[in-house]
Amino acid sequence: MQASTIQLAAYTGSTRDRGTWWIVAGKLCQRWNNWLGGKSHCFTLRQQGETVQWTRDDGLSGVATISR
Fold first, then answer.
1. Given a cut of 90, is residue 28 above it in pLDDT?
2. Contact, 17 vs 33, CB < 8 A?
3. How far is residue 23 from each of residues 3, 14, 36, measured CA to CA in Å?
């Protein structure tokens, strides 16, 4: 995966990064090469319509919206 952000660059430390994702025990896992310290995180996802509630393995959670 790859992403870029201008708005979060102060938080992430750079405007671009690459990483990998995989599935383990029904959870979406990902690791950015640089962002988030290069640490792996896994997420439990619950989708309802175009809304996705996510909870990361360390307890951080949030809501995302699917746009097409």
1. yes
2. yes
3. 19, 26, 19
Query: pLDDT by residue (tens digit) across 37-66?
Result: 899 999 999 999 999 999 999 999 999 999
Residue 42: Cβ within 10 Å count? 19
**SS3 sequence of 16-59:** EEEEEEEEECCEEEEEECCHHHHCEEEEEEEEECCEEEEEECCC
Whole-model pTM: value is 0.80
Task: Quote the CA–CA distance of 27 and 44 in Å, as a whole number.
Answer: 5
Are the C-beta atoms of residues 41 and 32 closer than 8 Å to each other?
no
Number of other residues whose CB lies within 10 A of the CB of residue 29:
15
**Amino acid, single-letter form, for residue 68:** R
